[in-house]
Specification:
Number of strands: 6
Helix content: 10-25%
Oligomer: single chain
CATH architecture: 2-Layer Sandwich
Strand content: 25-35%
């Protein structure tokens, strides 16, 4: 984790629980960056949406998570940060029971030991394209 961030744990913290997120992160310095929702779709695409633009996106949830994390990293780097600067992550997942294990594995690989404060929300579908299964909204504190 970046030196300008601090994990915050309350009473009852126990490493045996293997939590994939941190209850809170304290930001000591840096600039806040609010990211729009990121999916496996290209960051820049037509509005209103043109379904054919998304035909090349894989349907596998792990492959979609891989593209989503790459897109997230690219936006963070453009803002002067990286994945370890993410302080809050909201995950919108279609069919949580079916897709979350593959998504979790990819996200764990990309985040390493970093554990942003996170929330998962199951949704019926995502606005960009009905074939997508993951959208991430994030807040990062990038170095000043």
């Amino acid at each position: 984790m970046s030196h300008h961030l601090e994990y915050v744990h309350g009473a009852g913290d126990d490493p045996r629980y293997n939590m994939p997120y941190t209850p809170a992160i304290k930001v000591h310095s840096g600039k806040l960056v609010y990211l729009a929702g990121v999916t496996a779709a290209p960051i820049y695409h037509s509005h209103p949406h043109v379904p054919a633009e998304f035909d090349g996106i894989p349907t596998d949830p792990g492959a979609q998570a891989e593209l989503t994390m790459r897109n997230l990293r690219n936006v963070l780097r453009a803002a002067g940060g990286d994945l370890d600067d993410v302080v809050e992550l909201t995950r919108f997942i279609v069919d949580l029971d079916k897709n979350q294990d593959a998504i979790n594995a990819v996200m764990a690989r990309h985040l390493g030991t970093h554990r942003p404060a996170s929330t998962s929300v199951e949704v019926v579908r995502l606005a960009t394209d009905p074939r997508l299964v993951l959208e991430l909204a994030a807040v990062a504190a990038v170095p000043a």
